[in-house]
Amino acid sequence: MTKQTKASKALCALIKKGGGQISLRDYMGFCLSHPIHGYYSTQKPLGKEGDFITAPEISQVFGELIGLWFIDFWESKGSPAQIAFLELGPGRGLLMQDVLRAMSLRPALLKALTIHQVEINPHLKKEQIAALLPTPITHHDTLENALKSIGNTPTYCLANEFFDALPLDQYIYKKGAWHKRYVGYDGEKEKFIFKDLIPEDHFGNCTFPMKPESGTIMETAPLVESLFRQLVAHLSKNGGAGLIIDYGYNDFAYGDTLQALKKHKSTSVLKNIGQADLTAHVNFATLLRIGQICPNLSVKIETQGDFLKGLGIEMRTQSLVQKAQDPQLKDNIRKSTARLIESSQMGDLFKVLQLRT
Ligand code: SAH
User: Fold this and answer.
1) Does the C-beta of 87 come closer than 6 Å to ligand 1?
2) Among 136, 153, 211, 323, which residue's beta carbon has the most beta carbons within 10 A?
3) b/e per residue, 46-76, with b = 16+ CB within 10 A?
């Protein structure tokens, strides 16, 4: 008999309590953010030693150009003296470090900022504090608490690869009906399994832009949408700007984008409970629509490649290459930029949602 881990035992108990299954969203919620067993509560996810690498881990230029984007916005508003700078899911703190380095071109902006970070991972919280020393940070466990603490102060918000780490629901079309995806436990085979059931809150006669074929999967992300709604309502009321950067899609699309990553390799979504990152593409089409109905807010989406090129990444790279002495370093700088902007790499898959009041 395979020995169950503490995490999978706790998950089995939750499944039992749910009558034999829990929704995929609850399953992901457990695996990612359970306070004792969850991936983001316990693991060190980022970097070569971790499970995945993000843009600020690839190149400092990414954060520096984002810093310039915020400087431009700040100046367009007459350089206000009080701003809350809110980052969601700051990882190892490198992004904020690079952003603040670029912002040091405008000392009055640095002076205006109070930094708030939303983070659940205790290891990363420590790294974030260390990365920004001596600049103080206020940490919050949820966006809601962060927004309460910020109050009516104009806010700049930054989130890179945060929304892809939030739980979602999947629906699968088969036998002429949409089924909701749940997770159960097969006691004989001793493994977690998908269970596709017709849910009580099913789509009924809703029409969809594309007729589904049998086996089609559709994803919905109510948690992503609700956090984004809170954020845009806050910006719209108090003023400010935001950059939401993530991999995802711009048009309504069917498809299974959920994947599990462990040590930079794809693994089964139903294994390594609490030990692997579970991540899915962000539906930017929906976020755009939510943003567009907010008063006083302008919303724009670009690919990461276009966004960074628009901010001058090629020139900045050129100047770093010229300054570097070592040919190997020159090559690394060029390759890192290519990784961020080439369409065959992160350039097209990653999108940048820009919010401005
Ligand atoms: N922005 C960073 C890290 C992205 S990884 C970068 O670009 O490198 C995702 C980050 O979100 C991590 O810091 C992770 O601990 C945090 N995170 C994941 N789920 C979270 C949740 N539910 N609430 C708050 N933070 C979360």
Assistant:
1) no
2) 153
3) beeebbeebbbbbbbbbbbbbbbbbbebbee
* Ligand 1 atom with least separation from CA of 161: 4
For residue 160 and ligand 1, the question of a CB distance below 6 A is answered with yes
Average pLDDT score, the chain: 94
Torsion of CA 102, 108, 112, 113, to 10 degrees: 10
Residue 116 C-alpha to ligand 1 middle, in angstroms? Answer: 14
Strand ranges in the chain using DSSP code E only, listed in sequence order: 22-23, 83-88, 113-118, 137-140, 155-160, 169-174, 177-186, 191-197, 217-220, 240-249, 259-262, 265-267, 277-279, 282-283, 298-303, 350-356
What is d(CA 68, CA 233) in angstroms, rounded to the nearest whole number?
25
Q: What is the pLDDT of residues 104-160, one digit of tens each?
A: 999 999 999 999 999 999 999 999 999 999 999 999 999 999 999 999 999 999 999
pTM of the predicted structure, to 2 decimals = 0.94
Q: Is the CB of 89 under 6 A from ligand 1?
A: yes
- pLDDT at position 252: 81
201 vs 251 pLDDT, higher one: 251
The C-alpha angle 39, 40, 42, rounded to 5 degrees, equals: 70
- The residues pairing with 83 across neighbouring beta strands, listed in sequence order, are 113
Evaluate: CB of 31 within 6 angstroms of ligand 1: no
pLDDT value for 61? 96
Burial letters for 82-110: b for 16+ Cβ neighbours within 10 Å, e otherwise? Answer: ebbbbbbbbbbbbbbbbbbebbeebeebe
Structure tokens, 183: 């997770």
Six token digits for residue 56: 């600020």
3 state DSSP class of 191? strand
pLDDT at 48: 80
